[in-house]
Structures
1.
Amino acid sequence: MNTVLDTVVIGGGAMGSAAAWALSRRGRHVTLVEQFGPGHKIGASHGTTRNLNPGYHRPEYVAILAEGLALWDELEQESGEQLLARTGVVNHGPEPRFTDVAAALNEAGIRAEFLSPAEAGERWRGIRFDQQVLHMPDGGQLNPDAALPAFQRLAAARGADIRHHTKVVDFQVMNDGVRLVLESAAGTEAVTAAQAVVTAGGWTEKLLGGAFAGYALAGGGAGLRIPQLRVTQEQPAHFRIADEGAVWPGFNHYPGAGAEYRNWYSPVYGMHTPGEGIKAGWHGVGPVTDPDRRSFLPEPVQLAALQDYARTWLPGVDPDAFETISCTYTTTPDEDFVLDRIGPVVIGAGFSGHGFKFTPVIGRMLADLATGTRPAPQIFRAGR
Ligand SMILES: Cc1cc2nc3c(=O)[nH]c(=O)nc-3n(C[C@H](O)[C@H](O)[C@H](O)COP(=O)(O)OP(=O)(O)OC[C@H]3O[C@@H](n4cnc5c(N)ncnc54)[C@H](O)[C@@H]3O)c2cc1C
C-alpha cells in the first residue's frame, strides 16, 4: 500500500519543526517525521538554553538576526510561551572584529556598546573580563525544550501531521517527487510525496547518500553537491553556581595569542541555565562521531581544560562541581549554513553550532525555497 503526501519534513529538531510551522502557515499540508520521541537528547536541539548571541558583522547574518528577533517575538505571542530570556549577551577578549560587529548591529538597530572590563565586572561579578567587552542587551537565552513543541503544536493546529518514532529508512529523489520508506511501531510504510524538506542534522549525509541516483538534473548531471558535513560530539558542562548573588548574561570569550590562552581549544561560550548552573563549552572541537554510534561520554582532556577555564575566568562558579552535556554539531567547512533546493528536495543542514538563534528565520527560508518564493542568499547555497 502506498501513501501519497504533499510535503514531508524529515527531522523534528529545531529546523524541521520551524519548517513545518512556516509551511503550515502558508497552507501547505505538512507531514513531519522524526525517528525519536518528543524531547529526545540524541541530536542537537535539546536542553533549556541556547544563546541568542547577536555577535555577527556579515550582512547576511545581521539581516536574519534582526528578522529572527522579530519572529521569536511573534512565536512567543502565537504560542503564549516565553521562549527568550532577555539577559543580554557580553562578548569579550582581544577579538579584532568586535568593532565591525558593533557598527553592523547598531546600523541594523540592534544595540551594542563597549564597556570597560571594570564596569562589566561590577555588573556581572561571576565573570572575569578580558580586555575588550562588547555588551549586546538585545541578546539572551532561548529555550529549545519549549520552542520545539511550540513550533510543532502551532503547525499541528494548522493541519500538520507530526509523527514521532517514525524513521525514514529509504529516501529516493525522482524528477516528479520523492519516495520514502517509513518505519514505525505500526510497521513499514511506502510513501510518495510531491516535496521533501530534509532537516536531518547529523544524519543528513546518511539520508542523502545515493538519494539522487534516480534524479536527472535538467541539462544532465545528477544530484546536489552539498559541502562536506563534519559531525562532532560536543561536551559543554553546567558548573554549579558558587556566588548566588551574581547576575549572569550570556557570554562568549575569544582568545588572543598570549600564553594565558595556551590550553584553549576554541572560543568559549556560556550562559546561565536556570536550575542547572552556568553552562560553558568549547565550540566545535569535539571528536568526530557517527550520530548512530555515539559514546555520549566527555573527552577527558578537553573537560579538564574547560575546568581550568572556569577556575581562571568564572569566579562565580565551582569548577569542580559540574554536569557534562552531550550534543552534536554538524559543521560545514566555512561554518555557513546549507539552505538550498534541487527539484523536489529542500535542504537545511550544516548549522555548525550556531543555528538555534536563527531557527524561525531558517523555517521561513526553507518555506520560501519549498514554495519557490525566493532563493537563499548565496553564502548559504549548496554549490557555493
Ligand atoms: C552543545 C551545543 C550548544 C549550542 N549552542 C548554541 C547557542 O548557544 N546558540 C545557537 O544559536 N546555536 C547553538 N547550538 C546549535 C543549535 O543547537 C543547532 O544549530 C540546531 O539545534 C540544529 O538543529 P537541527 O534541526 O539542524 O538538528 P537536530 O536537532 O539534530 O535535528 C535533526 C533531527 O532529524 C532527525 N532525523 C535524522 N535522520 C532521520 C530519519 N532518517 N528519519 C527521521 N528523523 C530523522 C533526528 O532524530 C533529529 O531529531 C548549539 C548546539 C550544541 C550541540
2.
Amino acid sequence: MAKKKVRTTDTITLPCGCIYQDKGWLLVCIHECNYHKRKRTAKRPYRSKAECVRP
Ligand SMILES: [Zn+2]
C-alpha cells in the first residue's frame, strides 16, 4: 500500500480510531470508532421512551 496524498480528498485518522475524509470544505466521517459510536448512541434524546422497544 503506497502512502499517497490525494489532492482532492484527504483521509484523516484520529487517535481514537475515527476516520474522516477531508474534502476541503467538508469533513465526512467514513468510520466511527466504538468509543464515539457508543457515545453517540448513548446520548439519547430526552423523550426517547416511545422509541425504546425493548422487550
Ligand atoms: Zn472516535
